[in-house]
Amino acid sequence: MADVTLRKLVKMYDQVQAVKGIDLEIKDKEFVVLVGPSGCGKSTTLRMIAGLEEISGGQILIDDDVVNDVPPKDRDIAMVFQNYALYPHMTVHENMSFGLRLKKFPKAEIAKRVGEAARILDITELLERKPKALSGGQRQRVAMGRAIVRNPKVFLFDEPLSNLDAKLRVQMRIEIKKVHQTVRTTTVYVTHDQIEAMTLADRVVVMNGGVIEQVGTPQELYHNPRTRFVAAFIGSPSMNFVPCRLESHADQLAVRISNEIAFFMPEQKAARYKKLSGDGQLLLGLRPEHLTDMRQHMEPGCVPFDAQLEVTEPMGMETFVYFKMNGADMCGRVNPNAGALDGGPLKMAADLNNMHLIDAKTGLVL
Amino acid sequence: MAVSTTIDKVAPDKTPDKTGPRRPVVYRSLSSDRKWALRWSYFFLVLFCIFFLMPPVYMLITSLKTSAEISADPATTNPWWVYKPTLENYVELLTSSQFLTFFKNSIIVAVSTVIITMLIAIPAAFSLARMKFWGSTTLATGVFLTYLVPDTLLFIPLFKMLATLRDWTGIELFNRWYVLLVIYPTLTVPFCTWIMIGYFASIPKELDEAAIIDGATWWQTLTKIFIPVALPGLIAATIFAFTVSWAQFLYPLAFTTSNDQLVLPVGIISSLIKGDVFNWGQIMTGALLGAAPPLIIYAFLMDYYIAGLTAGATKG
């Protein structure tokens, strides 16, 4: 059980800065997910915490001790890799006990810990098998078991579910969450999958281009993204962005998208954006669920508009509709009974209570 | 008549001619394609087998003949047939202490060379494949380039080096079988290191990272993870080192002379060829007996050897 602190952490590869001085505090027992597109520095950060990559600048602290020059084995961490990294010539039991055997733990203690971990992960009957006789999901469990038996201060997960098929991934996601609820070890988890990040994390760290874009709970990131990148990255299908400008009409504020389309804002949004009035370089951000079909009882702040649909994707519970708004590609989520047809017209509504305005130049959410 | 002509004329214009000249299509089943491929494969395999087995078969035939029969006129007798088979050559060789000395020397030299080679090549390959240090890539290429230099170019400079070494240390290095333990590894270590580098490099990096996080030292990672995982490659390298040192002819010819120090390939030639008298029966017998140990080792480790040679083709 431990805190992990990153202070101005930098990683240089030759002349390229892969991680550009990030600060992060991970509290004891917390489950933190680093998420971002490939090459954003998330795996490098994790590997620096593990001690597998040298640190070019800044500090890493585990429990208030600077571990910059501490070798991995003395950091008291355990890591689960994307490709499981099980020792192919050892049985599951031997794989899980390898670290303990190296540390010369007594046999009884090893047996106890392996048995306990196997029970948590439900792999007791696999202990005598070799990794090649296991399925992907079972291998991943063993990899987790190897981490659990060590009873480390910190768990590090490096995209552990990426090699599994979609169904198994969902299942293992729940397993990981359960395991964390049981053992309550501080966990740093790296993934490029925002759904994994949202579902697993106590806090999500969104990284992009070697810097942290935003840190927050999944709900915070979803509802109050701080940058366009976070707004677009979190949520699936991702947020729609359409260029717009603000117009004042008497005491009301409107978002003008084109000569034909303008949406009047609800009061609390108008109050918020009043001082921006007149700025031309803006993007209107709306999540697909805030572009719906017209319903009989619309909340105040929902503005109707006509859409010419291009493609529809029936998902069963709802239908995704794709259309263009002043040239920008948009995605909306409508009721399957709304009569959405490929190439057909649809009366839709934009829920401006949940709109975001983004400075097109800086990418910051205003 | 006129009507029909019109139809004849019009019809082809309205429906474009899709038939045109065509290559006749022969539909052959996949299994018949496969059958032919197999037939051709077998044909060439048999051809090559005959070609490559001819010399050993001739050796075997000759070893079973008496000297008189070997020197018989091929015009009157068939040299590919043994008329009076005898084990005389075998008995004579196996009871001669000289031949047994050669055999013993060969085994000591080959086994020791394998051990020395592995003790050097495995740690060398591990460090070159895994411990990234300044110049490691260049060094790995250098190891390979060393292997490309033919040994026929090296034995004179080596001789000179050993002469200098002998003068410095006062240890007699010439005409002693143990000098071969210094020389053979110059042939086997580079190649074995190269094989092992490739093998170690095919082991996923996460495996040693996992071991390091589990608390293993480099040495433990090598002995507990890398060597067991790369065992097929290790066996391939072992067989190679054994075969090279067992069959080496040039170096022992140059560095050893007296009968008690000779290894098998040189010993057979120097003791069974007296001037221009070739004792063919015993030469062939000796060669056949000499070929036995590598053959036995191959037979036992064949599966590993093939696995070793094809490793890296697919990620295993």
CATH architecture of the largest domain in chain B: Orthogonal Bundle
Number of distinct beta strands of chain B: 2
Helix content of chain A: 25-40%
Distance between the termini of chain A: 39 Å
Instruction: Average the pLDDT over all residues of chain B and give the rounded result.
Output: 84
Describe the structure concisely for a colleague.
The complex is a heterodimer of chains A (366) and B (316). Chain A has 366 residues and is an alpha+beta fold.
Explain how this protein is built.
With 366 residues, chain A is α+β, with helices and mostly antiparallel strands. Chain A folds into two domains: 4-233, Rossmann fold, CATH 3.40.50.300; 241-359, Nucleic acid-binding proteins (OB fold (Dihydrolipoamide Acetyltransferase, E2P)). Chain A is built from nine helices and 20 strands. Chain A has a six-stranded mixed sheet with strand order 6-7-8-3-9-10, sandwiched between helices. A five-stranded antiparallel sheet of chain A has the order 13-12-11-14-20. In chain A, β17 (319-325) and β18 (328-334) form a beta hairpin. In chain A, α2 packs across α3 (107-121) and α2 runs parallel beside α4. Chain A starts with a strand and ends in a 7-residue tail after the last strand. By secondary structure, chain B is an all-alpha fold. Chain B folds into two domains: 61-95, no CATH class; 96-310, MetI-like (MetI-like fold). In chain B, 73% of the residues lie in helices and 1% in strands. Chain B is built from 14 helices and two strands; from the N terminus they run αααααααααααααββα. Chain B has helices spanning 2-14, 30-63, 67-70, 88-95, 97-130, 136-148, 151-169, 179-201, 205-213, 218-229, 231-247, 250-255, 264-272, 280-310, and strands at residues 273-274, 277-278. In chain B, β1 (273-274) and β2 (277-278) form a beta hairpin. The A-B interface holds A 50-52, 71-73, 77-79, 81-83, 85-89, 98-99, 102-103, 146, 150 and B 204, 206-207, 209-216, 220, 224-225, 228-229, 231.
